[in-house]
Amino acid sequence: MNLIALLGLDAWLARWRTLIAEGANAAEDRLELARLEWLEQKRRLRQVLLLGLVVVAVTVVALLLLSLALLVQFWDTPQRSLVAWLLAAGWCLVWLGTVVGFFSALRGMGPAFALTRQELRKDWHAVKEHL
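Structure (tokenized):
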């Protein structure tokens, strides 16, 4: 004789088992979503870092060669100091543009784990409503 069946608790226990199984499946899905988003975030960060380093390296080489060419062109003229100051101002403008571009790229990345947080927020609201 089954005491749980006699007391009418078998349906209640079955419902709780189902809820626990669904909760475990939902938690597994959320962890998988977080893992996928982490991989995507790492890929984006790696790409931004690599492109930033390439831009810095190419910019430095290009501006050094341009600076050298301009100084050689105006070396024996009275405008030599003017050209040197203009080159320094140009370098400062390039630096400023690079900093603005860098922060713009960082802002454009968006929040990390947005989908995971959204799903967890929905789950939390569903649990609060159910209670």
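Residues 31-130 form one domain. The CA atoms of residues 78 and 84 lie 11 Å apart.
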